[in-house]
Write a structure and sequence with these properties.
By secondary structure, the chain is of the alpha+beta class. It has helices at 27-46, 131-134, and strands at 10-13, 50-60, 69-79, 83-93, 100-112. The longest helix is centred in the first third of the chain and has 20 residues, at 27-46. Pfam families: 4HBT.
């Protein structure tokens, strides 16, 4: 497997407080990082508040260990009237190595909401998705 193109939406080091007694990172922590990355993409496309409404087909392929660098890549893949679907992949890299391993992937669905937390319309999926939808600003 090869890393997704572009820069990760989020990059973080897994710490001891994120792990179980065996040194494996909690799946919930990893899912939270993925939700943060997807939320960043969704709120940027929506131009405001967007909330998670679903996460589909998450499967863990490999463990994340304390000290690993976790890179989360998020990509907008579909847009409805008020919803956005974001494909998310998480990759780990051992602290002192160069090789990365894909550890999980999932699709997150967000809905754009207004100041009253009611759904609001979003722009359609562009023909060409600008880099800033995939990547954080530099």
């Amino acid at each position: 497997m090869t890393l997704p193109q572009g820069s990760p939406t989020i990059r973080v080091t897994a710490m001891p407080g994120d792990a179980n007694p065996y040194g494996d990172i909690f799946g919930g922590w990893l899912m939270g990082q993925m939700d943060l990355a997807a939320g960043s993409v969704a709120s940027r496309h929506a131009g405001g508040r967007a909330v998670t409404i679903a996460c589909d087909a998450m499967k863990f392929h490999a463990p994340v260990l304390v000290g690993d660098e976790v890179s989360v890549y998020a990509r907008l893949v579909a847009v409805g009237n008020t919803s956005m679907t974001i494909e998310v992949e998480a990759w780990r890299r051992a602290r002192h190595l160069e090789d990365s391993t894909k550890v999980t992937q999932a699709r997150f669905v967000f809905v754009a909401t207004d100041e009253n937390r009611a759904p609001r319309r979003v722009a359609p999926l562009p023909d060409h998705i600008p880099d800033h939808i995939h990547e954080p600003p530099r």
